[in-house]
Prior knowledge:
Number of helices: 6
Number of domains: 2
CATH topology of the largest domain: Alpha-Beta Plaits
Largest sheet: 5 strands, antiparallel
CATH superfamily of the largest domain: Protein of unknown function DUF881
Oligomer: single chain
Radius of gyration: 21 Å
Order of helices and strands: HHHEHEEEEEEHHE
CATH architecture of the largest domain: 2-Layer Sandwich
Shape: globular
Strand order of the largest sheet: 3-2-7-1-8
Amino acid sequence: MNGWARAAIGAAAVLLGIALGNQARTGLMIRAELRVLPQEVLELGNRLVRAELREAALEEQVYRLRREVSALEQAAAAQQPKLKTLNRQLQNLKTLAGLAGLEGPGVVVELNDSSAPLLPGQDPNELILHNYQIAIFISELWSAGAEAIAVNEERIVSVTAIRSVATTFMINARRVTPPLRIVALGDPDRLARSISRRGGPVEFLQAMGFPARVSRAERVAVPAYKGTFAFRFAKASRAGP
């Protein structure tokens, strides 16, 4: 077995371990609240893991094909001046749509569930992060001038939805579990001041016992959006832009 194959098997083992950990975490919630038999929970969890692995493989294929198309577009444009101008405009539009990976200065926000012990009679939901809390951070970062944002390597675009599912999140149809790492490109000082201000989202979570940390960075990377854009009802206006 060559080095590449060993590395691939190792990476697959790590992903499976993470997936099984997530499965166990959610399984406890299902058994406690829905009273489903352990064997049924295990089977549902295994089916979910297989479906997520297939979905991840398809997303990677879409991302790879987009990169190939982009390379062909640039190669074709280089041969003709008019096409070169059109391709430059196309690449700019892709950047605005979130279909291009970006890098530059910014901030990194690290969040996690509360580590405080559950008190008698306390609602467990008070100790876990919720989607509205993540949405507040994202909204604050956009308002402070962020130019691109990703949560655990999931790019935030116009069609992104963040939903709470038991103790996990669904972001761009991908299941994500804490700890969360929010990366935002922009002026590091301005972004950090906005979310760390008195009464801001960082102080709010810390006051509730949630770990929340913000750090400035000279260079951070935000990946391209790997999903698809499907508009069933919206159409371009005939009146123009």
